[in-house]
Design brief:
Elements (H helix, E strand, L loop, with lengths): L3 E3 L5 E2 L12 E2 L2 E7 L6 H6 L5 E7 L1
Antiparallel strand pairs: 1-2, 1-3, 4-5
The protein binds zinc ion (ZN).
Length: 61
Amino acid sequence: MKELACLKCRMLTNEKACPNDGSTELSKEWSGLIIIINVEKSQVAKTLGISKAGRYALKVA
Ligand SMILES: [Zn+2]
């Protein structure tokens, strides 16, 4: 089953609410997988404004 992406922070989850911010606005229409392991060292995380390690969608519809 495809994971859902949070519309607020783009984190991917199999739950009914985002584990990062608790949002229930989730979408299965997303593309591009980003895995952030170390927020401090990740330029991608900085660019995207991600502040917590995890798996994220690049684009969420
Ligand atoms: Zn979220």
